[in-house]
Amino acid sequence: MKNYVWHKQSVSSGLEIIDCPVYDPIKDFRRDPTGVYVLVRCNVADTIIEVAICDKKHTIIKTFRGRMSQDLYFTIFEYEKKHKLKWFSRKDHAAYLGKELKKAEFGLLGKEPYVQE
Q: What is the DSSP letter of 15?
């Protein structure tokens, strides 16, 4: 895999540098308009990560199981697409799933206990 280094890239004349404000998980949280949310947990006994897709009535409608974060998010997004579902209408919702899955993967490896945010 080629190692991409910033100093080898050209810079656009219209380059804008944006300093990001600190995200407050309470104040800045926005629920996905679909009402769907995810629960993530480590099943250490079976060495797998489990993701429950919950509807707005707090009912688990699907559960996905896997060992690697990318296997899980790829399968979840492909399932959503194949079945023409709208679970993740917001990009931050999809990004949150990826972040939580990576944390769960570390938890599964015993590097740190996993607690969903």
A: -
| Kind and range of the H or E run holding 6 | none
* CA 17-70-26 angle, 5° bins: 55
Matching residue, tokens 């540098």: 17
Alpha helices in the chain (DSSP H): 69-82, 91-108
CA–CA dist 19, 99 (Å, integer): 21
pLDDT-above-70 percentage for the chain = 95
Task: Put the strands of the sheet holding 60-66 in their side by side order.
Answer: 37-43, 48-54, 60-66
3, pLDDT greater than 70: no
Residues, the chain: 117
pLDDT of residue 9: 79
